[in-house]
Amino acid sequence: MLKARLLGGMLNKARRGELWVRPPIGFVHDGEKLALDPDRQIQDTVRLLFETFRRTGSAERVVKHFSTEGILFPHRFVRDEVVFCPLEHHQVVRILHNPRYAGAYVFGKTRQRKGAGHIRYRKLPREEWTVFLPDSHPGYLSWEEFEANQAVLRDNANGYGIDRPKRPAREGVALLQGIVLCGVCGRSMTVRYYVRRGHPVPNYVCQRQSIETAAGHPCQIVPGTGLDDAVGEVILDAASPASLEVALQVFEEIRTRKAEVDRIRRATIERAREEAEVARRQYMLVRPENRLVADTLERQWNEKLSLLSQAEEDYRKMKQDSSEPTAEDRERIQALARDLPRVWKDPRTSARDKKRMLRLLVEDITLTREAPMIRIDIRWKGGATTTVTRPLPLNAPDMVRTPPSIVEMVRALAPHETDREIAKTLNIRDLHSGKGRRFAPKIIKSIRFAYGIDNMRDRYRKEGWLTSREIAAQLKVHPATAKRFAREGLLRAVRVNDKGDCLFEPVSGPLPVPHKGKRYRDRCFPENVSNLPNEVQYEA
């Protein structure tokens, strides 16, 4: 009975918003209500956290921004002592999920269930909270902004299925990462990268069904080559270019952000200077005979001076590393604002920024592989849809495959020319292989073997032409004699390859008879032989 009365009193006090709960960082108790922390540095740091999340859309990016800028976040430990430490991811998530930063007093967000030796806690939806009093105290953001942050956090959750199709924009080159759905089963698709020619290339894979049902193969795999460019073209065609006024707002936002970070850094130095001054006064007021106390206070003073020196050194380094936006930067932003395609294609625009720009306009994108095409269904923020189709990109073998027109040219030239002659003909016409190289005899040979194209030797062999050994056996002479007959014109021969090998036409009539008793030079060049017996047989 006593416990029930105590719980009832707590509940009644909570319904009035008067139950004392330890305030989160950035708030203090002012009588019976919560109020913003009077420490300006704490207020500015907490506001910077929310502004950074609103700008980046990711708790991880908030942590990276604070770490890059060298900004410490306040932490309240025992006895309400505030210590500034590096910001961590779980702290950002806890602050973003806390409705008290939106000015609401809540009680009973969880419900516990006692089991066998353990207690389980379950988070309740907002409709089932025991107490929910909006606008009960000042906050750092409105309730609408708080709910928008919760929606972003839900989208960023690494869940699967139709209920959680989105994921936060990351650093990968896949433009559709996190918002792409499978057109077959409706589940979210993941990204799988592979390297081609030293660059990462994405593939969009629907593998959730294969994981859950042990199907052994993905639902569908859609190559990302050219797909991101196609979606980018649709975005550039649909979105109107940013106006000059918006560009100036972006420029002013950059300057404001820089000024806010600089103000927080200077506040950190001022706090360190005040703490060092307090430590100095405590040391100066101690009596000389209290050596133990004096030594302790002197050590604390030295520690505060060291922290002050470190803060000033960090501020100086940050000032050198981070330059202020200049007039040249202002002109560049204005120039980019007049041409949205330039902003999109600018090398300085990172993949993450492109993804965030895409998510401002697009709700999700559904991919369906309908060979030989890819169907792309784009669902815009307003609910409208746009459908485009693109051909499936070529796989790696097809990308280096010889064009069919060149194969047909090789097929037409092969019966009449050698591989070297064919390569020379194609190079004269400024043609290239599938890999973009100039033709060589080895490339022509590989093309013939790949497509089963007969060369000159195959053609003449099919027509019944004989080798030197075969024609020599028919004539009953040595192969060298058969080759000599061909040189003398007694046999018809043709060169069939780049090595100089010849094939001989079969002899159907009377066999050739060599001219006995005459020199080879005299038989081959009778016009150089004089009929005068005493004439000199050479020219002076």
Chain-wise SSE layout:
Layout: H1 2-15, E1 27-30, E2 33-36, H2 40-56, H3 59-69, E3 73-76, E4 82-85, H4 89-97, E5 105-107, E6 110-114, E7 119-123, E8 131-133, H5 143-156, E9 180-182, E10 190-196, E11 199-206, H6 208-213, E12 220-223, H7 227-238, H8 244-285, H9 291-321, H10 327-337, H11 340-345, H12 351-361, E13 362-370, E14 373-380, E15 385-391, H13 396-399, H14 404-413, H15 419-428, H16 441-451, H17 456-462, H18 468-475, H19 479-487, E16 493-495, E17 502-504, H20 520-524
Parallel strand pairs: 9-13
Antiparallel strand pairs: 1-2, 3-4, 5-8, 6-7, 10-11, 11-12, 13-14, 14-15, 16-17
Helix pairs in contact: 2-3, 2-8, 8-9, 8-10, 15-16, 18-19
* Overall helicity: 40-55%
The number of distinct β-strands equals 17
Q: What structural class results from the helix and strand content?
A: alpha+beta
Our count of helices gives 20
Q: What amount of the residues lies in strands?
A: 15-25%
CATH homology superfamily name of the domain at 1-156:
Putative Large Serine Recombinase, Chain B, Domain 2
Distance between the termini: 143 Å
Descriptive notes:
This protein is of the alpha+beta class. Among the domains are: 1-156, Putative Large Serine Recombinase, Chain B, Domain 2 (Hect, E3 ligase catalytic domain fold); 400-453, no CATH class; 462-535, Multidrug-efflux Transporter Regulator, Chain: A, Domain 2. It is built from 20 helices and 17 strands. It has helices at 2-15, 40-56, 59-69, 89-97, 143-156, 208-213, 227-238, 244-285, 291-321, 327-337, 340-345, 351-361, 396-399, 404-413, 419-428, 441-451, 456-462, 468-475, 479-487, 520-524; strands spanning 27-30, 33-36, 73-76, 82-85, 105-107, 110-114, 119-123, 131-133, 180-182, 190-196, 199-206, 220-223, 362-370, 373-380, 385-391, 493-495, 502-504. A four-stranded mixed β-sheet has the order 9-13-14-15. Strands 10-11-12 form a three-stranded antiparallel β-sheet. A two-stranded antiparallel sheet has the order 1-2.
